[in-house]
Write a structure and sequence with these properties.
This protein is mostly helical. It is built from 26 helices and no strands. The chain folds into three domains: 122 residues, no CATH class; 182 residues, Tetratricopeptide repeat domain (Serine Threonine Protein Phosphatase 5, Tetratricopeptide repeat), CATH 1.25.40.10; 108 residues, no CATH class.
Length: 494
Amino acid sequence: MGSSTGKAGAKYARDRLRQEMIEQGCSREAIAAEMRVRFRVRPREAWRHALGLTLQQAADRINDLAATCPEQAVAADASLLGKWEKWPASRRKPSPGLLSLLAELYGCTPADLLDLEDRQALRRGDPLLVLGAAAPADPTPPEPAAMASPSVPVGGQPRTADLVALASEEAAAWAQWAESSNVGDIAFEQLLADTQTLAARYLCEKPAAVFRDTRALRNRVFALLEGHQHPRQAADLYMVAGYLCALLAWMSSDLGQPRRADTQGRTAWLCAELAGHDTLRAWVLSTRSKVAFWDGRLKDAITFARRGADLAPHGTAGALLACQEADAWSRLGATEEARAALGRAAQAQETVRGRDDVDGLFSCGDFRRVNYATAAQLRIGAPGIALREGTGALADPAPHAYGTAAQLHITVAAAHLALGEPESAAEVLGPVLALPPEQRLAPIANRLHGLAADVARSPVASGRTASTLQSTVEAWYLDSAPRRLALSPGSLGA
C-alpha cells in the first residue's frame, strides 16, 4: 500500500483531521482507521498519526518504554521506525517485542497494528502471527465443510493414528526449517574480515568513505539477521553487527555528531547483549565513554569506562578503558584519580590476555596509551612529563593512526606552551596544520581550538608567534570535517 505522507500539506491535513475527529468525540481507533483510509498508510503509521507523533517522538517514547521493560530488547530511531511501519515493503520486519511496545504506546492491541498484507508476508508459525491474532468478530464456528480434510472426519475429531502422523509431519517440517541457515561459517569469516579491514582503514583513510562502507556492511549483516540461522551463527552475526555499530558510533562522534553516535552506541550494546559477548560489551562501553567525553558528559564517560573494565575483557580493551577513565578524571581536575587510572592502564597493557577480535580502531597499543597519558599529565599539572613522554613517542618511526598522532602533537605543543616555549609549540603543530580538511576530526579540532584559547590566555599572547598561531588555527578550524558535514547535510548517505 502506498503512502501520501510525503506530499506537501499532508501533515497539516492529518493534524486537522485528527483535531476534527477529537472534537466530534471519535475514538483513537476510529481516528487511526480514518488516517489509514484517507492517507493510504500502513496500520502502524496510521496509529502513530492518530496520536500526532512524529517518527522521532514515537521512537524516543519506544526507547523509554523499553528501558522500563528489561525483557524488551529494542533500540529505535526515526529511520528504523519508518522502516518498521512500511514493512513488508521494507526489509525491516518488526519484532514481537517491538509490536508489543507499539501497542502499549498507541493504546491498542498488537492485532490492530497488523493487516492482511502483513499476515500474508509471515511464515506459518511466526511469533507475530500468534501475538497479532485477533479475537474473531463472529463467535460462530466455521462450517464443518470448511474444516474437512481427508484425514479428519467431518464434524468430528481426527483419529489418533491420523493425529500421530500429522504431528510427525509437523516435526519433520520444523526440523527442516531449523536446520536451514542463510549464513555459513565461511560467510561469517568474510564478514569479520571485512569488519577488521574497515577498523584498520579508518585509522589512515578519509573518514567519510570508510563511514559509507561500514554502513553498507552493517546493513548487510542486519539483513542476514532478519533471516534464519542457527543460534550460534546468530550470535556470531550479532557480534559483527555490534562491532560495526560501535565503529559507526566512534566515527559519528569524530564527525561532530554525538547524538547520532549515542544512537549507534545503544544499538551496538543491544547487539553485544544478544551475542552474549563480554569483550564486545567492553569495546562498546569504551566507544560510549569516548562519545560521552567529547560531548562534555564526563561522569558518564567515567561510568562507562569503569563498567567496561569490570568485564575483564580479552585483548587491549582494558588498557584503553583505563586510559579513558584517566582522561575524564583529568578534565575534572581529579589528580589522584587520574594518576591511579593511568597506573591501571599501564598495568593492563603489560598483562594483556588474548588478542583483539577486530584490531585497528578497536585496539590500544603503546602509542595510543601514551596519547591519553600525556594529555592527562598535562591537565593535572605535569607538562614536563607530558613533553618527555610525548616527544619520545613521536620519535618512533613506525606508522600510527593520523588522528592519534595529531592529538599527541597538540599535547606536546601545549606542553611547550606551558613551559614558555611558543616557537617550539608552533613547530610541533606542523603535521596537524597540514592535515587535509576531511581528516580534521572533531577531537583534533576541539583540542587544537583549546590550544589556541590557551595561547590567548598565556603570557606570550601578544607576541608575533602567538598571533600567527591563533589566526592559523582559526582558519584551520573553520575548514574542519565536522563543519563541512554541518554545511553539507546528507553527505554521508546515512
